[in-house]
Amino acid sequence: MAQGTEVANPNPAANIVRQALIARGLETPVVENGLDNTQKRQQIEQHFEQIMQVLGLDLSDDSLMDTPRRIGKMYVDEIFSGLDYAQFPKITVIENKMKLDEMVKVADICLTSTCEHHFVTIDGSATVAYIPKTKIIGLSKINRIVGFFARRPQVQERLTQQVLCALQALLETDNVAVSIDAVHYCVKARGVQDESSHTRTTALGGNFKSKPETRQEFLQGLK
Ligand SMILES: [Zn+2]
């Protein structure tokens, strides 16, 4: 990271999460290349045009001619927007004044990500739970955090760990659990062409790891 070129992110939650991921070696491997989003869209468009030409596609065809531009926009603004911490959801955690200490579980959060090995879709769902300590978080914010990390080139194991680590940092507790069940289209559509296999990854922290009954309460009911 070049010193002094980075614009400070005004979203404190983004900074907390980023620092926590770096400290635990869980950050996506990224290199600051100095390109702004407009430059990124333009360069992806140019490169994708070349890929299509190499494939022998006719870029003067009106169905294909705008594809490079669409891909540039889609990569930067949509499916890989989670590489940009400026897009991190606005999160406010609030003090746990009600002294809640029972498990809060959000099940079946829809998740679409992209396999970083093949750049094709990972399609699945996440279940996330935590046991409040001093902080609580709006439930929809958990969905947004899952969505943010899903919008990166990913491996499912890292995605699972990143959601865990982000919530542990924001909620100031180790007592967080994340499970993701997903179909990888790189498995379904190519390679072994297994149409029905799912991959389940689970990341457990604190009591979810050390207390069998807490672990059991989280894991039961997962499809
Ligand atoms: Zn893949």
Describe the overall structure.
With 223 residues, the protein is of the alpha+beta class. The chain is 39% helix and 20% strand. The chain has helices at 12-23, 37-54, 67-79, 139-150, 156-171, 185-188, 207-210, 212-219; strands spanning 93-95, 104-115, 121-130, 135-137, 153-154, 176-184, 199-204. Strand 2 and strand 3 (121-130) form a beta hairpin. The termini are far apart. The structure holds zinc ion. Zinc ion is lined by residues 115, 117-118, 184, 186. GO terms for molecular function: GTP binding; GTP cyclohydrolase I activity; zinc ion binding. This is GTP cyclohydrolase 1. Homopolymer.
What can be said about this structure in brief?
With 223 residues, the protein is of the alpha+beta class.
Order of helices and strands: HHHEEEEHEHEHEHH
Q: Which structural class do you get from the secondary structure elements? A: alpha+beta
Mind telling me which CATH architecture of the largest domain this is? 2-Layer Sandwich
Q: Kindly identify the CATH topology of the largest domain.
A: GTP Cyclohydrolase I, domain 2
Number of extended strands: 7
What low-confidence regions span 5 or more consecutive residues with pLDDT below 50?
1-5
Compute the gyration radius: what is it? 20 Å
EC number: 3.5.4.16
Protein name: GTP cyclohydrolase 1
Catalytic activity: GTP + H2O = 7,8-dihydroneopterin 3'-triphosphate + formate + H(+)
Pathway: Cofactor biosynthesis; 7,8-dihydroneopterin triphosphate biosynthesis; 7,8-dihydroneopterin triphosphate from GTP: step 1/1
